[in-house]
Every structure is written in structure tokens, then in C-alpha cells.
Amino acid sequence: MVNRDRHEITIEILKKASDGKKKTEIMRDVGLSYLQAKHYLNELVREGLLVPDHKHNFRTTKKGMEFLEKCAKCPLFKWDLERTSFSRTR
């Protein structure tokens, strides 16, 4: 498995939570430990990128979706994705 930086993990979480997911689903889908998930989810909620609902699902906010759109436009992020896909093929 390729090491991911915090930006890649954040983006994966926001994408997975766009339609609402429980903490354990996010942990499994993104490949995080309980402590990692707790840290990232708390931080993203604090920053207003995620919001928990009354059923303990996490959903990406409008601000979180705007963040994802900006990341998709960033040429540096695209270069990093090309680099990781190249290293996986080798």
C-alpha cells in the first residue's frame, strides 16, 4: 500500500461521506484505525467540512464539497495522483 498524506486521507473521507456514512463505514472504506478516524472526523467537523446527524452519520457539508471542487482543480494535486499511480504500476 502506498503511504498517503493527510490531504489525500481528508479528500477520501469527504468523498465517502458525501452521501452520509457511519464512522465505522468511513474507517473501513478509507482504511483508517479507530484513533485515526476519530482524529480526522473530529478535525473535519471542527473545520465545518463534515457534519454529524442525529443517527451518527457523517455527511460532507457544502463547504466540504467546495473544498473537494477546489482540490480537483489544483494542478499540484493532479501531479501527486499521477506520481502515486505510476509507483503502483512499477
Short description:
With 90 residues, the protein is mainly alpha-helical.
Describe the fold and architecture.
The chain has 90 residues and is mainly α. It has one domain (6-89): Winged helix-like DNA-binding domain superfamily/Winged helix DNA-binding domain (Arc Repressor Mutant, subunit A), CATH 1.10.10. It has five helices and three strands, in the order H-E-H-H-E-E-H-H. Strand 2 (50-52) and strand 3 form a beta hairpin. The longest helix is centred in the C-terminal third of the chain and has 15 residues, at 75-89. Mean pLDDT is 85; it is low at 83-90.
Helix fraction by DSSP (H/I, runs of at least 4): 55-70%
Structural class: mainly alpha
Q: How much of the polypeptide forms β-strand, as a percent range?
A: 5-15%
CATH architecture: Orthogonal Bundle
Mean pLDDT level: 85
Strand line-up of the largest beta sheet: 1-3-2
* Approximate shape: globular
State the CATH superfamily name.
Winged helix-like DNA-binding domain superfamily/Winged helix DNA-binding domain
Note the run of SSEs as H and E: HEHHEEHH
Which features characterize this protein?
5 helices, mainly alpha, disordered C terminus, 90 residues, 66% helix, Arc Repressor Mutant, subunit A, 3-stranded antiparallel sheet
